[in-house]
Design goal:
The protein is α/β, with parallel strands linked by helices and about 350 residues long. Helix content is about 30%, strand content about 25%. The protein has 10 helices and 18 strands. The strands form 3 sheets. Strands 1, 12, 13, 14, 15, 16, 17 and 18 form an 8-stranded mixed β-sheet that branches. Helix 1 packs parallel to helix 2 and helix 4 packs across helix 5. The structure holds pyridoxal-5'-phosphate (PLP).
Length: about 350
């Protein structure tokens, strides 16, 4: 088997998605599967769709193109604000895009006229996390402009919390989104079809038993793929946390001092805390590094192999039980940061299981 590689258990991803879909359905909340962490691999997208996610979304047009080329015909939304320069591409491959800038919506309208299609617009609101979003006071003005544009169909509103500042979805900010949906319907006499409350960080709030108001959709990536909620990085009850396993091969295994010798400066990755002196230890080097994954975001499945350090293409392990030799394989569980980097790395072979 080739190393490094990431093994992807499609069945576990499908089961995770199905459980989340079923838990949210009684609240009237549909799930849109987010494929950006896995570069839009059609096999993973199909697993999400089989599990009952009602649509898919991605932040990058390249991944959406991968989904379409892979035969996925379900609705796909672009969840990162489109670049002005890609408007033509967006209307051809995405049914809906998430928007915050009227200049972009105007360009999408021109592109949709050119391609003779109708493009759906979801307007994103800024509710505290300070990433993308229209300030609530400005939504009326942008909506007035949007409704005038040919080949553009207003589909709904949404927000994204937690990703930049860790702002937690709660009754207050979600209540605000619901209220905005109600006011739009009242003042514009139209139906706000989609009210997309957020990402995996919204699950705790959505499943807490509190009133979920007008929220009828969540966009879930990390929770489906890794079975964890991002706010406290806790496993979600009943879901698998091991759908992805990263493998690397040992290229050196030697007894060495635990403490470096010589004058200490910065490394290519900044300052590193100098290890304490524990005398001689057995250290093993795995052929994996920052170009393959996030070395701070992986844990060896064996608890006897803590990571001591890393560089572009080396990860150094403390081989506590002297269990490794050159040629041994070591398996790791990735967190979200390690997962996205491994999936995007050309050096890591992707192996689909089941
Ligand atoms: C990445 C992203 C998501 C999915 O986030 P997860 O934490 O992986 O569930 C949802 N919405 C937007 C706008 C995103 O950028």
């Amino acid at each position: 088997m080739r190393s490094p590689r990431i093994e992807i258990n499609i069945t576990k991803i499908e089961e995770n998605a199905r459980i989340l879909v079923n838990r949210l359905a009684p609240k009237g909340i549909t799930v849109t599967g987010v494929t950006k962490a896995v570069l839009g691999y059609p096999l993973i997208a199909e697993a999400m769709l089989k599990a009952g996610t009602e649509s898919l979304c991605d932040s990058r047009m390249v991944n959406i193109k991968t989904l379409r080329d892979g035969g996925i015909t379900s609705p796909i939304s672009l969840i990162r604000s489109p670049m002005l320069s890609e408007a033509d591409y967006v209307v051809q491959y995405a049914k809906i895009s998430f928007n915050t800038e009227i200049s972009v919506i105007r360009k999408l309208s021109i592109a949709a006229q050119r391609h003779n299609c109708i493009h759906g617009i979801l307007l994103m609101l800024e509710l505290g996390d300070l990433r993308e979003g229209i300030l609530p006071d400005d939504i009326e003005g942008i909506l007035i402009e949007t409704l005038k544009l040919p080949n553009i169909l207003f589909r709904g509103i949404g927000t994204n919390l937690a990703c930049r500042s860790g702002v937690t979805p709660n009754s207050e900010n979600m209540g605000r989104l619901s209220n905005i949906a109600d006011s739009i319907e009242k003042y514009f006499k139209l139906n706000v079809e989609i009210v997309s409350g957020g990402n995996s960080a919204n699950l705790e709030w959505a499943l807490s038993g509190r009133d979920t108001g007008r929220i009828n959709n969540l966009r879930l990536g990390e929770s489906i793929l890794l079975g964890r909620e991002p706010l406290h990085s806790q496993p979600i009850d009943g879901l698998s946390q091991d759908a992805f396993t990263l493998f690397g091969e040992v290229i050196e295994s030697k007894t060495k001092p635990s403490h470096p010798s010589g004058e200490i400066g910065e490394t290519s990755f900044g300052l590193v805390a100098t290890a304490s002196d524990r005398g001689l230890i057995r250290q093993s080097i795995v052929a994996l590094g920052h170009q393959d994954t996030d070395p701070t975001g992986i844990i060896a499945l064996s608890s006897k192999l803590p990571i001591l350090g890393s560089s572009s293409d080396h990860i150094i392990l403390d081989d506590i039980e002297n269990s490794l030799s050159t040629g041994s394989e070591v398996s790791f569980n990735p967190n979200y940061s390690a997962l996205i980097r491994s999936m995007a790395s050309p050096f890591v072979t992707k192996i689909f299981k089941n």
